[in-house]
Design brief:
The complex is a heterodimer of chains A (about 525) and B (about 450). Chain A has about 525 residues and is α+β, with helices and mostly antiparallel strands. Chain A has helices at about 10-15, 90-100, 105-115, 140-155, 160-175, 180-190, 205-210, 215-225, 240-255, 305-315, 320-330, 360-375, 380-400, 405-415, 420-430, 435-445, 470-480, and strands spanning about 15-20, 50, 55-60, 70-75, 120-125, 130-135, 235-240, 275-280, 285-295, 335-340, 350-355, 450-455, 490-495, 500-505. Chain A has two domains: about 10-255, Metalloenzyme, LuxS/M16 peptidase-like (Cytochrome Bc1 Complex, Chain A, domain 1, 2-Layer Sandwich), CATH 3.30.830.10; about 275-480, Metalloenzyme, LuxS/M16 peptidase-like (Cytochrome Bc1 Complex, Chain A, domain 1), CATH 3.30.830. The longest helix of chain A has 19 residues, at about 160-175. Chain B is about 45% helix and about 15% strand. Classes of the chains: A alpha+beta (about 525), B alpha/beta (about 450). Chains A and B meet through strand 13 and strand 14 of A and helix 1, strand 2, helix 3, strand 3 and helix 8 of B.
Chain lengths: ~525, ~450
């Protein structure tokens, strides 16, 4: 689900490791007149989708936005596919290399063509995919398709280019690692995962980045394994003629030969105990706490993923009781946010808190613990839940307000199953979620043994973290505490601004004595 | 079941200590000051089997209001100064309110007290003077702890109550003691045999009259709606469109109004519609004659009311009167629940009586009623063999003499009256109330609710 639209832009950018990457500014301009009333699908544009004989999946969406076309080329390879030891970060590194061009279209030549044609050419890499996105005027579609097709099939670079770009990537790592949030994410992933490649971030481990300049041969191997049509989708959205566009794609991309590599991605074994790590960061003002739980895999027809998204909004967003408590009322925390990236395999659901006083770290941890316990024991208000679902759904639709926005949204889902209907499936699952589902999903995922906690500060260790704070104990306490009230309630609440309350006791003067 | 001597009024004083006294954390003065800008209210109403704490607040201020009043209700201050002030107010209310300046209410309350001798309903809701004087804070605390239990409580909410506040109320009220009984267990009224009169003598220019007898029909009873219709026809409260009013006030100009009741209706001189949350397991049929100019007139008006009641029992209602009253009630009943707090109050009463919502309940029953039903219900519920009369008068002995000797009470007008009326007056002037001398008691007002 595209909760990214609601999240802070900070959290959004965490999902991506981009170079020339720029986040689409998705505005809230209402385009609701485009929503067909009888159609409750969130993605309801007409589209043409076709799989070429070589396995390349092509999707074309004609929009009413004039002149502009957005081409997105999601490749289903991300840091998740980096299964070989010593080769982490390669998907991202390779994203850089693809910009080097081909024999026919070397970098300086195609960039000159793009410049004259006003093509905006960028890319980013995530855990699960790498996306190349180009925006331009419609008359350049054929040329852009031709150049990109040639680069994807005949990428060429020299060892000198390769070694130099590896240094750029190291610079990017160092730049990113200055962010305490990225540092925390690297730390928690390394701690939480044993076998799965989510153990490393899209940047990769630092030692592997340092070794990159000597990996010229592996670069070739990587390209041959993953840059194959069965891993790639083309999403073309804008002022286009779908049939003619499909013919152009076929012309330039139809001759690309299919590959046969499948990465053996090891499943993460079940975590056996809660984990904790303290990262000392001498230059850091304040103290950070990150509490992460293992989440659900990408299964849009099931409720788990959507329910986890709803939980993160209900209990940890800016509108949540916890935010009100920690940031607004008690002002223990100066920052608090949740981050729940969509991942193909079970990833992590994060809650970040920054406190100013070291003794508040444990308080914030306990407050998060209480909140998860609440999610496991209470039934969330049905109206609140339905309001949230409605807001998310319409915010998502509101965000589809340009060809580029539509294309980039589609690209971020195409890598999963290369089928845009997964978006509708996901929202349909979300629609069916009840308060009982929320509670059930909370009980399935938020258990002590799937938790990893990280603290980071200038201190050598964080006070109050010598022992794990048990979630199951808080849950047990909440479950036994409230006995059913023995009084009756006559609830005639309505929308009247006047509130009348009547505490009526069946006793009186006849009881005197 | 008779309340032991010494505790009458403890229920009302407890209620006052909560609603009009400070909490543990905040004095009453501070509470009032905080509620003032919110125009928030919090008060209580007490009857035999119901004690209601009610408040009204704008939704924007509901949290602030609740923070104050929940402390009053759940963490009462039980302060000495509040206790002294409220006790004094209650004693003064009986002395200078009820007994000195409200003869009509006094007559009604004496009627109830007399009919329920030895019964838990006997005492006045606000106690009596000597008991109030003897009550201690410990008595109040004991009543609070034993009677204000969750089992006996129904929380009624209406309006845009914020969900968080609702949740807060749920957990707060769960701190009250659980208790076992969900309501009081009330025995049947003592049996009334024959005709009785209680005459309260006090300084008074006029004579107030109330009379009645216990009935078995209460709101949840099968025949209640039919009897409610009869009451309306015979003496709808404060309405110029009812039979007794027409006979005594309109035709004869004897007093301000004449009404009949089948449910407890306090404060009738101040309001035109009954309050909610006065649910009772036992009720009486009652006729209330507004004050008469003299004992002679009071005697005559009482004879008229009895004469008409006998006639009603004998002849029943006519089809035309039945239809008109039924139409009136079907159209009028929504007015009884027209405001938001009355809607809530009546809904709570429906819970007490275990009936449908009030309007639906009476409307659906009224629609099915026939004249035959109504006339049967009159015969089943109304009678004049056993009646308790109460007179509040300046000359008790005179009133007693008149009643005991069945003295004629001629009706004199300041104008010509139709022959038919004059003839009827002649009959009524000697109409027998048949109260034996030893069933007539004259008491000084000082000894009432003493």
């Amino acid at each position: 689900m595209k909760f990214k639209l609601l999240a802070t832009s900070l959290a959004v950018s965490l999902a991506l490791t981009g170079c020339a990457m720029q986040k689409n500014e998705i505005t809230q301009t209402a385009k609701q007149e485009q929503i067909k009333k009888a159609d409750d699908r969130v993605f309801s544009q007409d589209y043409l989708i076709k799989e070429l004989d070589n396995g390349l999946r092509v999707m074309v969406v004609k929009t009413d936005y004039p002149d502009v076309v957005s081409l997105q080329i999601p490749v289903s390879v991300g840091s998740r596919n980096e299964v070989e030891a010593g080769k982490t970060g390669f998907a991202h590194f390779f994203e850089h290399m693809v910009f080097k061009g081909s024999k026919k279209f070397p970098q300086d030549e195609y960039t000159a063509i793009f410049k004259n044609a006003g093509v905006d050419n960028r890319a980013y890499t995530t855990n699960d995919y790498t996306n190349y996105h180009l925006n331009f005027s419609k008359q350049h579609l054929d040329k852009v398709l031709e150049i990109e097709a040639d680069i994807f099939q005949n990428l060429t670079y020299t060892e000198e280019q390769f070694r130099t770009e590896a240094l750029t990537v190291k610079g990017e790592y160092l730049k990113n690692n200055a962010s305490p949030i990225r540092k925390l994410l690297s730390a928690v992933r390394a701690e939480a995962f044993e076998k799965h490649t989510y153990k490393h971030t899209t940047m990769g481990f630092f030692e592997d980045i340092e070794a990159m300049p000597d990996q010229m041969a592996y670069g070739k191997e990587f390209f041959d394994k993953f840059y194959k049509p069965e891993y790639v989708s083309l999403v073309i959205v804008g002022d286009v003629d779908p049939k003619a566009t499909m013919a152009m794609v076929k012309k330039h991309w139809g001759g690309w030969e299919k590959g046969d590599y499948v990465a053996d991605i090891k499943a993460e074994p079940k975590q056996q105990a809660p984990k904790y790590l303290h990262e000392q960061n001498k230059a850091l003002p304040g103290h950070w706490l990150l509490v992460s739980y293992k989440g659900a895999p990408w299964e849009p027809a099931k409720k788990d993923r959507a329910a986890l998204d709803l939980i993160s909004q209900l209990y940890f967003s800016n509108n949540s009781d916890l935010y009100q408590e920690l940031v607004v009322d008690k002002q223990i925390a100066s920052q608090m946010f949740t981050y729940n990236p969509e991942t193909k395999d079970p990833g992590l659901l994060h809650v970040f808190v920054k406190v100013e006083n070291e003794e508040d770290l444990a308080k914030a941890r306990d407050a998060i613990n209480r909140t998860y316990a609440k999610a496991r024991t209470e039934l969330v208000d049905a109206q609140k839940l339905s309001d949230l679902k409605s807001n998310l759904k319409y915010s998502f639709i509101n965000g589809l307000d340009s060809s580029q926005a539509i294309a980039s949204t589609l690209a971020s889902y195409m890598h999963f199953e290369r089928d845009p209907e997964v978006i509708n499936q996901l929202y349909k699952s979300a629609d069916s979620i009840t308060a009982e589902d929320i509670k059930a999903v909370a009980n399935k995922y938020f258990v002590d043994n799937t938790r990893t906690t990280v603290t980071m500060s200038a201190l050598e260790k964080a006070p109050g973290f010598e022992q794990e704070a048990s979630l199951s104990e808080v849950v047990a306490k909440l479950e036994q505490a409230p006995e059913a009230p023995a009084f009756k309630v006559l609830d005639k609440t309505n929308s009247s601004v006047l509130v009348d309350v009547n505490f009526l006791f069946n006793t009186g003067a006849a009881a005197e004595g | 079941m008779q309340p032991p001597k010494g505790k009458k009024g403890v229920a009302a004083l407890t209620a006052a200590m909560l609603a009009r006294g400070g909490s543990q954390s905040t004095s009453y003065k501070e509470i009032q000051k905080a509620l003032y800008p919110l125009a928030g209210s919090f008060g209580y109403q007490i009857d035999k089997e119901m004690l209601s704490f009610q408040g009204r607040i704008h939704k924007d201020n509901a949290e602030t209001w609740y923070a104050l009043i929940s402390e009053q209700l759940l963490n009462p201050g039980f302060r000495d100064d509040d206790f002294k002030r409220l006790k004094k107010e209650m004693i003064d209310g009986i002395k200078s309110g009820l007994k000195a300046s409200n003869d009509e209410e006094l007559g009604k309350e004496v009627l109830y007290s007399t009919l329920y001798k030895g019964h838990p309903y006997e005492s006045y809701n606000y106690g009596d003077i000597s008991d109030l004087e003897a009550l201690t804070l410990d008595d109040v605390k004991a009543f609070y702890n034993t009677e204000l239990t969750q089992s006996k409580l129904t929380l009624g909410l209406i309006g845009a109550v914020p969900n968080a506040l609702k949740a807060e109320m749920m957990s707060d009220l769960a701190t009250l003691p659980k208790g076992e009984q969900s309501r009081l267990s009330i025995p049947d009224a003592p049996e009334l045999k024959g005709h009785h009169a209680t005459i309260v003598e006090k300084s008074a220019q006029s004579t107030a009259v109330s009379f009645g007898f216990p009935i078995d029909t209460i709101r949840s009873s099968e025949d209640w709606t039919a009897l409610w219709l009869v009451r309306s026809y015979f003496g709808e409260h404060r309405s110029s469109n009812s039979y007794l009013y027409e006979r005594i006030r309109q035709t004869r100009g004897m007093n301000y109004g004449d009404y009949s009741y089948i449910e407890y209706f306090p404060r009738g001189m101040f309001q035109t519609k009954p309050d909610a949350n006065l649910g009772r397991s036992e009720q009486i049929f009652q006729i209330w004659l507004r004050p008469l100019r003299s004992n002679n007139d009071a005697h005559f008006a009482t004879r008229t009311a009895l004469f008409e009641l006998d006639r009603l029992i004998k002849n029943g209602m006519t089809e035309k009167d039945f239809e008109a009253t039924r139409n009136f009630l079907i159209n009028y009943v929504p007015q009884l629940v027209a405001s938001q707090n009355r809607q809530l109050g009546y809904a709570l009463d429906s819970e007490f009586y275990n009936t449908e919502s009030f309007v639906k309940y009476v409307t659906s029953k009224l629609e099915k009623l026939t004249l035959g039903d109504v006339n049967r219900v009159i015969k089943d519920n109304l009678q004049t063999d056993n009646v308790q009369y109460v007179f509040i008068t300046g000359d008790g002995e005179d009133m007693k003499k008149r009643l005991a000797s069945e003295q004629t009470s001629p009706m004199v007008y300041n104008t010509e009256k139709p022959a038919e009326l004059v003839a009827e007056d002649k009959i009524i002037a000697d109409y027998k109330l048949a109260i034996e001398a030893n069933n007539i008691e004259v008491v000084k007002v000082d000894s009432v609710f003493k």
